[in-house]
Amino acid sequence: MNINDYLKFELIGLEVEVVDAKNKSLIGIKGKIVDETKNTFVIEIKGKEKKLLKDQVTLIIDFKKEKIRAEGKLFLGRPEERIKK
Would you write out the chain's pLDDT as a tens digit for each of its 85 residues? Predict the structure, then answer.
């Protein structure tokens, strides 16, 4: 599967790690995606929630025993619209 195939899947509940970001203090953050909007991911980290702008981060996503590296801007748009594509 290539990255375009993964764009169709639901991301809520998946573990992610920030590996690059415009805000360098975000690099290394690991957690679970608990919500997603048109422009943000909401990540739960040790019981706290952190919003990440999709167009400003690159993530490693744990997807069914595979680690996928993806730029957040690929996921821009409403999740329900992205899944329909």
Answer: 666 777 788 899 999 999 999 999 999 999 999 999 999 999 999 999 999 999 999 999 998 888 999 999 999 988 877 766 6
Assigned token pair, 66: 């595979």
Query: In CATH, which of 3.40.5.10, 2.30.30.210, 2.102.10.10, 3.10.180.10 is domain 3-84?
Result: 2.30.30.210
- pTM score, two decimals? 0.87
Q: Where are the domains of the chain?
A: 3-84
Helices and strands (H, E) in the chain, number of each type = 2, 6
CB atoms within 10 A of CB 35: 14
